[in-house]
Design brief:
The complex is a heterodimer of chains A (331) and B (419). In chain A, 50% of the residues lie in helices and 13% in strands. Chain A is of the alpha+beta class and 331 residues long. Chain B is of the alpha+beta class and 419 residues long. In chain B, the strands form two sheets. Chain B has a four-stranded mixed β-sheet with strand order 1-4-5-8. The longest helix of chain B is centred in the C-terminal third of the chain and has 31 residues, at 311-341. The chains are: A alpha+beta (331), B alpha+beta (419). At the A-B interface, helix 1, helix 3, helix 6, strand 9 and helix 7 of A face helix 1, helix 10, helix 11 and helix 13 of B.
């Protein structure tokens, strides 16, 4: 039993951080918006093995486990990685289970970008067709849309968004469309894997949230050390220091639980879904709570559009609505 | 494919090559949630032993009954070879590794084995301090007695004027020949009324700076000049006491470590405490939340619905479940970290802080579930209300939550010191 990253996993973390820092730094988000990743950049991520990190090597993937994938998304989460990276990685699994080999191989090459659907109410999927009102995250330039609930995993063509205007999104790093479906036909459906895929999705959302929660804590601590008032760094004051300590504690719990849940799910432990739900809850809560405290720690600066604190807050709210913990899943 | 310029694949490639070709790689730590076969065997052994040996009757609250109960349970563990699981075997302990201790505590909690009670200080503070800093005579006399349930220890650190700021303590020790004459006043000393010995921290050099002039002594609680006054808690029990010292004569050979070096002796137990002493509580908490869920299923609320059908209760219980899982994962990560680095670091304070928060919110939820039933409580009556009242201690005793935040802020995050 060992719950800390191995040296090999540390390498994955470093590489993902380096990639994000050079290719997708937070500075990409300007004037309340960010461009969707270019196709070159998307292909570069695919080259790294990003979208198939857990796909078996025989199918062109890397063959790592969910823990490695979670560590990857946590690193990416620090830079508010596009939600489409998450949707694409999840959809790749669906392509595997549906035997959609050609699509999978295009996906692993970085030729398809996938958006994530957020149902406004419960997903209605009578006879495999989708109905209801959805918010589509990162639909701009997306080839497909992933619809995922505990009992339905479906991939629909991106043309569903045709004729639908893009809306501005609370999280400026994401793009938003709102669609109303009335019996849409998915290209791929798999109800059997839905609950597993949902649990994996909860862990990856948790990973993104842990990344953002950790980045926030570092931001707060740096400011607490640098900013001086009354002749001393504000980090001396307990009203600043203690919230930082609370952030670190929440992060430690969320990160440890993310690792534990990933391992549990990979080895099919019987309470794996509950562990995943716990990770999802703790990480989401850490992201939101840290983001709010961070703004207070920064004073007026924290409220500006020019400083990054608000980006993390808005990201935390976006993550909060992605693949939420189903009611009763923790009991 | 391996030649493709793809970083993860290259990492994977090299690691799979090295895994096959070098033994060393196999031994370097790999993230893994499973226990080894050997550890699972130990788990079975512990489970069987506990099932056959734990006391069947409930632990009494106070008086001679509780002493008899705790000591006989300690003796039983000693005879079974399970006393001092965390003590090195050369001192009669079981010498379990941290992961093995974790297994012990998990099984201990699952078996509903009794709280360590009055044996806590001897097993987790006094004994380990003697192991690290005591001389052969001190170790030879005391360690076996602690292990076999012959002697009870208490901890005399806090004073009316020295709580969080322990080093400001003022109980004086004057050296006269081969004795130290002690005068002063300790407080919050758990189980002082039952104890045979006390780890006593006093000021022996009033001229020296705060941390320099202290001495750590073994005090025989039956020495003349000691008066013990039990203090009643809001639960109704008398867990802790005030202790008064009037010209108490303690032989110099009872000094542990060097004279005036008591602070460093006291701190050696502290790092021990950060390491493992609270694993038991962490593990037990998961069980508490399970029981809380049962309580919500069995309790009918004022609208005639079971409390478990109330959305706000379900939400609170769900959050607790998630937190308890997080706490366990954190404990596992903590154990992994200590196993890798060899010593407990300040990260332990995050676990302590989290544990206190969850313990308290769990018991608050318990009160919510009970509704008006919570009023049915009398002093000393064990149950949810008693535990709710008792757990105010978890953010106070052994270093308050504020002090834990100071440690995290300064030693984990590197924020500037304010004091
Ligand atoms: C059940 C129980 C059993 C105990 N058993 C023992 C025992 O066996 N032996 C023993 O020696 N002691 C024992 N104690 C005492 C315990 O160690 C002290 O209560 C603890 O160290 C806090 O000291 P205090 O109670 O004097 O509170 P204080 O130190 O007076 O603190 C009061 C409040 O001020 C806050 N505070 C203090 N300093 C700071 C600071 N620098 N920054 C921010 N906030 C601060 C505290 O967090 C707290 O909220 C026990 C306590 C309890 C509750």
């Amino acid at each position: 039993m060992d719950l800390l990253p191995s040296s090999e996993q540390e390498q994955i973390i470093t590489m993902a951080m380096d990639f994000m820092a050079t290719e997708m730094p937070l500075e990409r988000i300007k004037n309340g918006q960010a461009d969707a990743p270019s196709s070159e950049r998307w292909e570069a991520m695919a080259e790294l093995g990003w979208f198939g990190i857990t796909v078996h090597q025989d199918l062109g993937g890397v063959g790592y486990g969910l823990a490695e994938e979670a560590l990857l998304f946590r690193a990416a989460g620090r830079f508010l990685a596009p939600v489409s990276t998450l949707a694409t990685s999840l959809a790749a699994r669906l392509m595997v289970t549906c035997g959609a080999e050609e699509l999978l191989s295009r996906c692993l090459k970085g030729e398809v970008k996938i958006a994530l659907a957020v149902p406004e109410t419960k997903i209605d999927n009578e006879r495999g067709r989708l109905s209801g009102r959805f918010r589509i995250i990162d639909g701009r330039g997306a080839d497909f849309i992933l619809f995922l609930s505990q009992d339905q995993a479906a991939l629909c063509d991106g043309s569903l968004l045709g004729g639908c205007d893009e809306k501005s999104c609370l999280d400026p790093s994401a793009s938003l469309h709102i669609i109303e479906l009335n019996g849409a036909h998915p290209d791929l459906v798999d109800r059997q894997v839905a609950s597993d895929l949902y649990a994996i999705g909860m862990i990856l959302v948790a990973a993104l949230a842990v990344g953002t929660a950790e980045a926030i804590c570092e931001m707060a601590v740096t400011h607490a050390k640098d900013r001086e008032q009354f002749g001393r760094p504000i980090g001396v004051f307990q009203a600043i220091k203690h919230p930082c300590a609370d952030m670190a504690m929440r992060n430690e719990a969320a990160f440890s639980q993310m690792c534990y849940a990933a391992l549990a799910l990979d080895s099919c432990h019987n309470d794996a879904v509950r562990q995943a739900a716990a990770a999802r809850y703790l990480a989401g809560h850490a992201g939101l709570t840290n983001a709010r405290a961070n703004i207070q720690i920064h004073g007026a600066l924290g409220m500006t559009d020019e400083f990054n604190a608000h980006l993390h807050l808005k990201r935390a709210h976006l993550l909060d609505v992605l693949l939420p913990v189903p009611k009763g899943a923790l009991l | 494919m391996l030649l493709r310029d793809c970083i993860f694949k290259i990492v994977y490639y090299y690691s799979s090559v090295t895994k096959k070709s070098t033994e060393k790689f196999l031994r370097s730590p790999v993230m893994d949630m499973d226990f080894s076969k050997q550890e699972e065997r130990l788990r079975d052994e512990i489970r069987t032993w506990l099932r056959e040996n734990i006391p069947k009757d409930r632990r009494p609250l106070e008086g001679a009954d509780v002493c008899a109960y705790d000591l006989s349970w300690q003796r039983k563990q000693y005879e079974g070879g399970w006393a001092g699981i965390n003590w090195p075997s050369e001192y009669g302990g079981r010498g379990l590794s941290l992961i093995q201790q974790l297994i012990w505590y998990e099984e201990y909690a699952n078996a509903d084995a009794p709280d360590v009670g009055i044996c806590f200080v001897g097993l987790n503070h006094g004994g380990p301090t003697l192991i690290y800093r005591g001389d052969e005579e001190q170790k030879g006399f005391h360690l076996p007695r602690i292990l076999n349930g012959e002697s009870i220890w208490c901890q005399g650190f806090s004073e009316p004027g020295a709580g969080s700021d322990l080093a400001s303590l003022g109980t004086r020790g004057r050296i006269e020949g081969d004795e130290i004459v002690v005068n002063g006043h300790k407080i919050w000393t758990s189980y002082a009324q039952y104890a045979d010995y006390q780890e006593l921290l006093i000021r022996t050099d009033p001229e020296a700076s705060k941390h320099k002039g202290l001495t750590w002594l073994i005090c025989d609680m039956r020495s003349s000049g000691i008066t013990v006054r039990p203090i009643r808690m809001m639960t109704g029990e008398h867990d802790f006491c005030e202790v008064f010292y009037e010209d108490v004569r303690i032989p110099l050979r009872n000094v542990v470590g060097e004279l005036h070096d008591g602070w460093s002796v006291a701190m050696s137990t502290l790092s021990f405490e950060r390491g493992t002493a609270f694993l038991a509580d962490q593990v037990r908490l998961a069980r508490t939340v399970d029981l809380l869920i049962d309580l919500a299923k069995d309790t009918v609320g004022p609208e005639g619905r079971r409390r478990i059908d109330d959305d706000t209760i379900v939400q609170s219980l769900s959050v607790l479940r998630a937190q308890v899982a997080g706490l366990r994962a954190m404990a596992y990560a903590g154990v992994s970290r200590i196993a890798r680095t060899g010593l407990p670091g300040p990260e332990g304070s995050m676990i302590r802080l989290y544990l206190a928060q969850i313990l308290q919110s769990a018991h608050q939820v318990g009160m919510e579930i009970l509704g008006s039933r919570m009023l049915d409580f009398g002093y000393g009556q064990q149950g949810w209300v008693f535990d709710y009242l008792y757990h105010f201690a978890s953010s106070i005793g052994g270093g308050t939550s504020e002090i834990q935040r100071e440690i995290i802020g300064e030693r984990v995050l590197g924020l500037p010191r304010g004091r």
